[in-house]
Amino acid sequence: MQNKSPVIIDLKFDRQEVATALKGAFADREVIDLAHPANKARDLSGIDYAVVWKPSADLFSRANDLKAVFSGGAGVDHVMTLPGLPEVPVVRFVDPTLTTRMSEWVVLQCLLHLRQFKAYEALNAKRIWRELAQPEAKEVTVGIMGLGVLGSDAAAKLRVMGFEVVGWSRRMKQIDGIETFDAAGLDAFLARTDILVGLLPLTADTRGLFNAALFSKLRRKGALGGPIFVNAGRGGSQVEADILAALDDGTLAGASLDVFEQEPLPLESRLWTHEKVFMTPHAAAASDVRALFAHVEQQISRLESGQPLQHVVDRQAGY
């Protein structure tokens, strides 16, 4: 163990979940969990690796010899803006469990809107027995913005359910069976879209992207009677005042939101009670801590055996 660098853990996750996951992880090296009181003032110099999610503000000034930083989630915007972040590789968490959970959430939300679940809830509350029109999935086009691991998997599973699927990314990507668009094709992509799914990272280019101007370009004469907005990417990419205004004036027929500009969502937000909104508390794809640690161990093993790290963030692109 003395020949292998310890691993710093600085994760604002459930403490019991982290403790349980650590029992079977990093068997051949020391773990320094900064949540433990004994490590609050520990010297962290000379340590090569840190696994972080909303870490302590002074982490990088204390751990000034890091060789790699591992994000505790698929998103990395919280890491890339940390003060003192060293010029070392930052590695995203990519794992089948996280991908599957995200796709489950996206498919669920699309089906809830397809089958008019909000409308039936309203009828049930009034004890009204009424069958509503039932468009088929094949009549509805889901447009996914963000075609990384999560977006590509969600697209494949939506196709299995029968939806037409199109995709958008800043740079053109090729995905079998799915028409894709790049930055220059954004308006054409939006004009095709009945359900808009946001799975974008948060960057300077995507901040505030989901706004009134964008919503106005979505298809208006689709089978659902109006466009739907679904976001499980990053809260900073949406303008919530514009979402509410669009829901109120009919520009949007509904929304499903898992991420928000401020989290937890302020109690005074109308999104809590809006009759057209499905809402979850940034829980679409919670990180499996056991899987996270296995991912980090695999990447450290690659690095120490002379192989390149995988899923390294492109600092210029921001993801």
From TrEMBL:
Keywords: NAD, Oxidoreductase. This is 2-hydroxyacid dehydrogenase. The lineage of its organism: Bacteria, Pseudomonadati, Pseudomonadota, Alphaproteobacteria, Hyphomicrobiales. InterPro entries: D-isomer_DH_NAD-bd (IPR006140), NAD(P)-bd_dom_sf (IPR036291). Residues 110-284 form the D-isomer specific 2-hydroxyacid dehydrogenase NAD-binding domain. SUPFAM superfamilies: Formate/glycerate dehydrogenase catalytic domain-like, NAD(P)-binding Rossmann-fold domains. It comes from the Bacteria. Pfam families: 2-Hacid_dh_C (PF02826).
